[in-house]
Amino acid sequence: VPVAVIGGGYGDRVVTAHDEPVRSATGQPATVRPVDGDPGDPPRPVYFDAASAAPLHPAARQALQAALDDGWADPEKLYGVSRRARHLLEAARAVVAEAIGCRPEEVTFTPGGADANRRGLLGLLRGRRRFGDTLVHSAVEHSSVLHTAAAHVAAGGRAVSVPVDRLGRLDLSAFRDAVTTGGVAAAAVMSANHEVGTLQPLDEVAALCAEAGVPLLVDAAQSLGRVPVPAGWSVLTASARKWGGPAGVGVLAVRAGVRFDAANPARPDPVPPVPVPLAVAAAAALRAAMASAEAEAARLSPLVDRIRTTVAATVPDVEVVGDPVHRLPNLVTFSCLYVDGEALLHALDRRGFAVSSGSSCTSSTLDPSHVLVAMGVLSHGNVRVSLHRETMESDVDRFLAELPGIVAALRAQAGVTDL
Amino acid sequence: VSTVDTSGAEPGSTPAVEVLDCRGMRCPLPVIMLARRLPQVPIGTVIRVLADDPAAAVDIPAWCRLREQEYLGSAADPIHDAPGYDVRRRH
Fold it and tell me: How far apart are CA A11 and CA A66, in angstroms?
């Protein structure tokens, strides 16, 4: 039975706050290659970048294996093995639909979250072109939204970027002004910010959009599988690798009745089919993540609080950014004055910590993160820590114990300890 | 550090008396240069930081906020071909 593949094993197991990750015989988490005891070896790797990609959930691995055996055929054909693949895909779609609170036929798998954002926005803009050509979005949306907005402007459309405050919260009054101005085709506001973790006031945003009759695209990439799905969206997008599914699977959900024109006759751009086993694995991971989301949030959120408090107390001249309360349970960002972000990332990597940064020196364009810029917070020396189901309290302990020394050493090296 | 006449230059009402040339430097270097120089000038003095690294546009105002110094604003410097960020020593 296809659903059993998705629902079986870890999928139905509710992970409690006391559960430890699967461990290998050496006591290391199973996904981490054990290191031997040689003192010259680097310390045990600690992965703190779930906001880029969470480690594959065991439920996803299990479902992937099963679906590779069972769902390898082309789901479009009319024979038996093809029907099996199609049923698996339909079951996966149903799981995702249930998780986000919509109907299965409203869900499309895409090759990724960025692709879902682009298609979602273009579909709305095309579908609503008789009403206007303005795209309203927050200043801190994912780059895929900003790039789509820029392309829309380059093609003669209009885009309005709504500012955020120092904590990264949308300026609701500016948003109201923007969506109630005539000629708005669509609005895009993310549920939670990928760089600083701030949750957006989506209830208010959705109410303003409904009042103005403007369809709302919600990028739920960082929140799906972690915090409750927001209501009031017309289009919702997400990315499986953020919730512990495999890379290469995005979700594009379009509510029935929303004016959405997926096809551009001049430039056909059909959604490339997502491999059935990947979609099945993504659904299994999402079901598992949803089942344990509340417990995981209760376990991780106090760790984030501890990082926020301890970093501010033990690292001099540090700015912990983002909303301290209305935030994702697993993400924290801070900036260290006078420290080069790239040097800090490398120093942390040498100590076994994988983190991300919004500092300009770590980006391919050498531009600072547009999120930190929009918030007006320090962009250099920036570190983003994002936790996940395999994160152990001891990982956070070691990070907090080592960080002050690492930052102090970099400042000493740069000769800025007297500033 | 060079002292040049930028009287009448936007955006500060008080002309910058000193220009810190940080062109070609990547953040956090312009901020470090500012943090090093500002305490050496008399209180009330305005320093213009010339910096072409885009991160300076957010990091210099943020530094002023963290250090409670007065950020006056930015403008294209009329003499040098780079954005200038004016900061007044407050304490």
Answer: 13
CB proximity under 8 Å: A 328-367 to B: 337-340, 359-361, 366-367
For residue B47, what is the enclosing H or E element? Answer: strand B46-50
Residues in chain A within 8 Å Cβ distance of B59: 368, 378-380
Per-residue pLDDT, A24: 41
Helix (H) or strand (E) holding B60: helix B56-67
In this structure, of A15-19, A316-320, A364-368, the range with the lowest mean pLDDT score is A15-19
Q: What angle do CA A242, A217, A213 make, to 5 degrees?
A: 160
**Mean pLDDT score, B4-14:** 49
Confidence of residue B75 (pLDDT cuts 50, 70, 90): confident
Of A91, A118, A116, give the one whose Cα is nearest residue A282: A91
Structure ipTM over 0.90, yes or no:
no
Q: What is the mean pLDDT of residues B32-56?
A: 96
Q: Count Cβ atoms below 10 Å from residue A410 Cβ, excluding itself.
A: 19
Here the contacts of A359-363 (C-beta below 8 Å, separation 24 or greater) are: A359/A335, A359/B27, A359/B55, A360/B26, A360/B27, A360/B53, A360/B54, A360/B55, A361/B26, A361/B27
Q: How far apart are the first and last CA of chain B?
A: 21
Query: Residue A346: its pLDDT value, please?
Result: 96
Give tens-digit pLDDT for A365-389.
778 999 999 999 999 999 999 999 9
- pLDDT for A382: 96
Judge if the upstream peptide bond of residue B61 is cis by omega within 30 degrees of 0.
no
Instruction: Give me the amino acid identity at A301.
Output: S
Q: Is A182 helix (H, G, I), strand (E, B) or coil?
A: coil
Half-sphere exposure of A95 (CA within 13 A, CB side): 31
Nearest CB to A377; choose among B53, B54, B62: B62
pLDDT over threshold 60, residue B40: yes
- Residue B14 banded pLDDT, cuts 50, 70, 90: low
Helix (H, G, I), strand (E, B) or coil at A370: helix
Residues 6+ apart with CB under 8 A from A8: A62, A63, A66
Residue A331, Cα to own-chain centre: how many angstroms?
10
Whether the CB-CB separation of A143 and A370 falls below 8 Å is answered with yes
pLDDT score, position A8: 42
CA geometry: angle A393, A334, A414, nearest 5 deg: 110
Residue pointed to by tokens 């994002």? A386
Name the active-site residue from B4, B17, B27, B57.
B27
- List of chain A residues whose C-beta atoms are within 8 Å of the C-beta of residue B31: 337-338, 380
